[in-house]
Amino acid sequence: MSAGVRARRPATPPLGLSNVTPSAHKYPPSLSRTDGLDADARRQAASKGYGPGHKGYAPGGLNITSGEWKLLVVVLIVATIVRMFRISHPDSVVFDEVHFGKFAGRYIKTRYFVDVHPPLAKLLITAAAFIFGFDGEFDFKEIGKSFVNVPYVAMRMVPATLGVATIPLAYLTLRGLDCKASTALLASLFLTFENGLVTQSRHILLDSPLVFFTALTIFLFVGFSNEDSHQPFSEQWWTWLVLTGLSLGAVVSCKWVGLFTIATVGVCTVLRLWLLLGDSRVSVKKWSRHFFARALCLIVIPILFYMTMFEIHFLILGSSGDGDAFMSSEFRQTLGHGMPDTYADVAIGSQITIRHVNTQGGYLHSHSHNYPGGSGQQQITLYPHRDENNLWLVLNATADNYPQYDYEHQPIEYIKHGSRVKLRHIVTDKALHSHDVRPPVSDVDFQNEVSGYGMTGFTGDLNDDWVVEIEKGDRHDKESGKRVKTLRTQFKLRHFMTGCYLFSHSVKLPEWAFDQQEVTCNKQAVKANSLWYVETASKHPQLPQNAERVNYKIPGFLSKFWELQEVMWTTNSKLTDRHVYDSRPWSWPFLRRGINFWVKDHRQIYLIGNPFVWWSSTASVITYVLVRGFLILRAKRGYKDLENTKLVKYDVLCGFLFTGYLLHYLPFFLMSRQLFLHHYFPALYFAILLTSAVFDFATSTLRPRIRLQVACVLIIIAVLTFDKFSSLVYGSPWTRSKCNNAVWIKTWDFAW
Asked: Cα 271 to chain center, whole Å?
């Protein structure tokens, strides 16, 4: 290289998992050209007034010409038209707007709810709804319900706007990865006319914000990586790094799928640190600075951002709502209807409520409805809300002929370990009872039915008797381990006659029991599901006025935060029921079927991808795997392919995008929960970028004009394919023949 020529530092992709030779471990890899510029780059430098061999460094390595910015504006206008066209149609609820529209109403009315997704995307939609005057009264109850006094267009504009904003991010990301302008244009227009992404972004759904923040994170990380190769620890370096951390926090605050984006950035960061560790020019002190800077910005900042979203969530949802039942009693104390202080002592004659320790702590409950089968006696259930039907009177069951203990005048008799008691339901005056009859749902030999039995004046029989077995007490109250104390003692109730234990589990009874939770008497009871505690106890006649009172401890933010994470995880893992339009991950790359969103009057909104874009992306992924495998085999035979600078550049570029694809796709194979085609969208984004990178490599030897012409042909095919299925995007009328002609695969189940 001549002394008067300055070598170009190319924009460097974040390193993926590619196996490059040691000579290619330079960061960034050096180029073989003496001036470091290809034909496009030399033209670009000349347009900026630079002489041969000189190229100015732009922030984040984004050397974008003024002509490209004008082109991006045109692309943005096109993307806006595509995503905003007739966004007010239909004027009724579509697919999962049932959930996410309803959640916006809950936020506005400050009523607590539980969802399996973090709050950021829902908060953005709620902000639009609030600004445009939504009062939260509309219930979004069912698909097809017409909107009344709902600013649904404004709410739909949030995901639509973020869908539009994803397009320039894809363009800038590929330019930051040193791809040609024509390549970046191809990716941005493929995303613009991808039917599935367009459909998903036009409704009150969370996937468009998720894809946007995924794209934003990757763009910012590419910019940071370029700054890292240019001038580490500069002001711009810190700016890109901090912004990457904030975006990581945002993507995981939309959906937990954002963890896959964190994994993508994490893998590349670990690899970069590993390469720096092996660089003798980097001192241990400097390497430590690299490590701690990344730990702060890529771990601490995302965590703080994520937790901040939940703090906002808690601040807004300060009132009791339909999510109360999922939370602990301590948590519910913060929701505006806290429990008043209650008496600590429990004795014969106390009126109490009893809660299950496990299964989100429902109340032991009865009501004046009988089992339709079995004994036909009164139902005993677990009910999640406070109610007068949760009240029980503790009576003695130890004396012959059942003489009632005069608890109003006789000395107070506390409930101790081994106490034999009856529990009388106060509202219906029936005893908690069990016998050798199978339960209505858990019809197995080791489970007995639990029922309400007896009548006013009837003392009952031995099947009403239960033995209290104290399991543990509060470590700060030694007495609570010897006798039952409110909130502090966990105990089991053993049936006196059969030896089974009062038990409940996450099994719902049918509609005849109002979908409440089943309670049985289990001879093989799991300990966790057979533990109970007293939540409230009325003042016993023998207790003094100043008797000890207790209440739940009010939890702080961290306690509430961790509890909600556990509830979200548990609820998410239980979403295993089949859905008529669910699908498994193996079918997604091949676009085997879509999702029916809405049907009315021979019009339909059906989530299906653009087959040309979709299958091209899948072909590109397969092509990369085959070519990479072939290069590995050639390397084993002694070939020096990976010493070729150009090949190394594309290997690192495609390796990074392929890593992102795999980390956003493969984890779904480990999930047994309900899955849908839209779960593939973040992986699809990487696949489309990979398609463009493959195009960039395949056309790298062509003249720029010819390469642009090839790109235009591909774009035209994508647009025509989009148009063929556009009626399913916009819910436009179409004929039976057009519908039938659009069914390219028999598994595409468009409704008619």
From this structure: 27
